[in-house]
Design brief:
The complex is a heterodimer.
Chain A lengths: L1 H11 L5 E12 L2 E12 L3 E6 L5 H8 L7 E6 L2 E2 L5 H7 L1 E4 L11 H8 L6 H14 L1 H5 L10 H13 L5 E5 L7 H16 L4 E5 L2 H7 L2 E6 L2 E7 H6 L1 H6 L6
Parallel strand pairs in A: 3-8, 3-9, 6-7, 7-8
Antiparallel strand pairs in A: 1-2, 1-4, 4-5, 9-10
Helix pairs in contact in A: 4-7
Chain B lengths: L10 H30 L3 H15 L11 H16 L15 H23 L8 H14 L9 E4 L10 E4 L1 H23 L5 H20 L26 H8 L9 E4 L2 E4 H24 L2 H11 L1 H6 L4 H27 L9 H14 L4 H30 L9 H15 L8 H9 L12
Parallel strand pairs in B: 1-2
Antiparallel strand pairs in B: 3-4
Helix pairs in contact in B: 1-2, 4-9, 4-12, 4-13, 4-14, 5-6, 5-7, 5-12, 6-12, 9-12, 10-12, 13-14, 13-15
Classes of the chains: A alpha/beta, B mainly alpha.
């Protein structure tokens, strides 16, 4: 099923380059299997969303990609290179950066220091300054609060800081893990607007979300995960209309 | 009053801080003054000391342009002049006279070790219970390269001082030996670090504890290595004598620096200076080097990575901090300074013995770091100096004072580890972040840190 969808979406999106490809990935936590053969693709310039219930393996998929949990089986390719067993810092260096689940800011560092940590793997001063300006343009709030300790900001501001920090790595692919988690509705909308804006500036995004409605709205394609496998894969608009998805994840009962 | 060095926007902050500190410092100073005067009588040195300390503390120097250099500069000056004014200092109630210069040398060396350990524990947040291994490594390096120990096999001289130029064994100048010791110990740090630093928290502590135990055992049993008859450490007798430091005749003739510390004697700034003063100044110089490196490391990219790992290891990894490499650097840097301190101490004591390197020393140095305030250099200096002083002569003085007052006969230094334990418990109860904590550490103690286990991060 995944095959056919991949083919369909590929033809649908023209001859775009595949930037990330997961092929039958199996990942374990100790002896517990969290991913049971996950395959997915992200193409140049698109937003792909990964939706599903708690514990379906969405975050594990991201942790497999960025090297925090190496898969036991399967292949992960980024821009054609096999990154399955790369260490996290090498993955970051290659151009995949992440805003992790629960934001994971360095709470006692200032906003500025957090952003600088995001650029840890870079040493081009001018480029870092440019990225910083770009982040401040996307998130003016961060500029106002740049000397504040990250841990003392509101949830929405912290999420902005986490996304800004990920952007400081000048990623070729951005992984966003539950950016809307625990945020007030007004912030959720603002965050998704920014996701769209970041993508418009050219960065492909793999977006993990529980808020399926919003996620399918910004994404061009979507994958639905259930207990460690991809249960459904389709154009985002098609998934939003899918009966089963509507019932399970969008809370539409009619 | 107009202070031109003060930016106008800082003025209000400066005044408020000045007032706050003046009240706090004044109360403490007054209490101290009354206490000392009652027990030891009034003395000029007491008033002078209080005046200097108040001037350093009460004025918020940090807020003045270039002011942040004032406190370190004055401190370095006073510490350097210590042998000159030590004899005219007042007596502290209970503790007795100020430490002798001899004790001050030991204190300085232990502070150096504490600062080395602080890099591992305070900056990177890795609990190391085997730091004594690095101290031992430094000391034995000095013993191998600056003593008659290998006399049966080799006779090698390189800038040796204080020994017969024909003497058998390695006799390398102490300055080269210190450098060698630092490098060797740094390498040992990496070797110990590579397998252990994959672990975290309690597991890391236990493994480092193991390495700390292995070292003195090797030292104790290394007189017949693998039954080959090769005598590496001379077993329980230890290795002595180790050559004294010195600059040798050539350099001495040109610069006036001491040729050999043990026999040195000269008139300098109106005081007769002997070997012990030179030992002291050299230790202070090494300590300054250590502090300088430590500060530079803390403020570097590497230092920021250490803080990131301490705050949230998973997030640090996700930001591209190479965990193993960064932690191993912390270990190597800590070991480096432990090696310097160990080599210099061995040369100072002119010998090294396996009994000097047991677990209690690891704990002792760790106590210095915790007591003073993890991560803060001033804190570690105060903590290290105080505990080393207590260990060297403070407890003896206190014991003598108690026995004299109450007519008892208690051997107080015998209970040293009990006493250190009590001090540590009291600190943990009332000021768990240490006497002079770093701002960041203080926050961590108040809020806790994230330490979620991270699977499979190995590279």
């Amino acid at each position: 099923m995944t095959e056919t969808v991949a083919e369909r979406t590929q033809s649908g999106s023209g001859e775009r380059k595949k930037i990330l490809e997961l092929e039958d990935v199996h990942t374990y936590y100790g002896s517990i299997q969290a991913l049971k053969g996950v395959s997915l693709e992200v193409y140049e310039g698109e937003v792909v969303t990964l939706i599903g219930a708690n514990g379906a393996g969405k975050s594990t998929t991201l942790r497999s990609i960025n090297g925090l949990n190496h898969p036991r089986e399967g292949r992960i390719r980024f821009q054609g290179r096999d990154i399955t067993q790369e260490a996290p810092h090498d993955v970051v260096k290659m151009g995949i950066s992440q805003s992790p689940e629960g934001r994971r800011l360095f709470p006692r560092m200032s906003v500025m220091e957090n952003l600088e940590m995001g650029a840890f793997q870079r040493d081009d001063r001018a480029g870092i300054k440019e990225s910083l300006d770009r982040v401040f343009e996307l998130f003016p709030r961060l500029q106002e609060r740049r000397n504040q300790r990250a841990g003392t900001m509101s949830g929405g501001e912290q999420q902005m800081c986490a996304m800004g920090r990920a952007l400081m790595a000048q990623p070729k692919l951005l992984l966003l893990d539950e950016p809307s988690m625990g945020l007030a509705p007004i912030f959720v909308e603002r965050i998704f607007e920014i996701v769209r804006e970041i993508n418009k500036q050219g960065t492909p995004i793999l977006l993990v979300e529980q808020n399926a409605l919003m996620a399918l709205d910004v994404a061009s394609r979507g994958y639905v995960m259930e207990t460690g496998v991809i249960a459904l894969a389709d154009e985002a608009s098609a998934l939003a209309k899918n009966e089963q998805v509507r019932k399970t994840y969008l809370g539409v009962t009619d | 009053m107009n202070i031109p060095l003060l930016p106008p926007d800082r003025r209000r902050e400066f005044d408020a801080e000045l007032r706050r500190r003046a009240i706090r410092g004044g109360i403490v100073a007054l209490a101290f003054f009354v206490l000392v005067t009652i027990f030891s009588g009034i003395a000029f040195s007491l008033i002078a000391t209080i005046a200097v300390v108040l001037a350093l503390y009460v004025v918020p120097w940090d807020l003045i342009r270039y002011g942040r250099f004032i406190v370190p500069a004055v401190t370095i000056l006073l510490v350097s002049l210590y042998p000159y004014f030590r004899d005219s200092m007042f007596e502290i109630p209970l503790f007795g006279p100020f430490p002798t210069v001899d004790t001050a040398v030991t204190m300085t060396i232990f502070i150096m070790m504490a600062i080395g350990l602080n890099i591992v524990v305070g900056y990177a947040g890795l609990l190391d219970l085997g730091y004594v291994a690095f101290y031992a490594m430094g000391a034995y390096t000095a013993a191998w390269f600056a003593s008659p120990h290998f006399g049966q096999a080799v006779t090698f001289h390189l800038g040796s001082t204080g020994v017969n130029p024909e003497a058998a064994g390695f006799h390398v100048s102490i300055w080269i030996v210190i450098f060698l010791a630092a490098i060797f110990t740094g390498i040992v740090g990496v070797i110990i670090g590579l397998p252990t630093l994959r672990l975290r928290g309690d597991y890391l502590a236990i493994v480092t504890l193991g390495f700390g135990e292995i070292m003195p055992q090797i030292a104790r049993n290394g007189d017949n290595l693998f039954n080959t008859g090769f005598n590496l450490t001379n077993g329980a007798q230890g290795i002595n004598p180790i050559d004294p430091p010195g600059f040798g005749k050539t350099i001495s003739d040109f610069t006036g620096l001491p040729e050999d510390y043990l026999t040195f004697n000269a008139d300098f700034l109106g005081k007769e200076i002997g070997g012990i003063e030179v030992f002291y100044w050299t230790a202070v110089a090494l300590l300054l080097f250590t502090v300088f490196c430590s500060v530079r490391l803390r403020d570097s990219r590497l230092g920021r990575a250490w803080i990131a790992i301490r705050e949230d290891e998973t997030a640090a990894a996700a930001m591209g901090v190479p965990l193993m490499r960064t932690k191993t650097w912390a270990y190597a840097a800590g070991a480096f300074f432990g090696g310097i301190a160990g080599a210099y101490y061995a040369s100072f004591k002119s010998g090294t013995f396996p009994d000097d390197f047991f677990f209690n020393i690891s704990v002792f140095i760790l106590c210095m770091v915790i007591l003073g305030g993890m991560g803060n250099i001033w804190g570690v200096i105060v903590g290290g100096g105080f505990l080393a002083y207590l260990n060297q002569e403070g407890l003896g003085n206190i014991g003598a004072e108690i026995n004299q007052t109450f007519g008892t006969n208690i051997d107080v230094p015998l209970y040293q580890f009990g006493i250190f334990g009590i001090i540590l418990v009291l600190v943990m109860l009332f000021k768990p972040e240490g006497l002079i904590p770093s701002a960041r550490r203080k926050m961590e103690f108040e809020e806790g840190v994230s330490d979620e286990p991270l699977y499979d991060v190995q590279k």
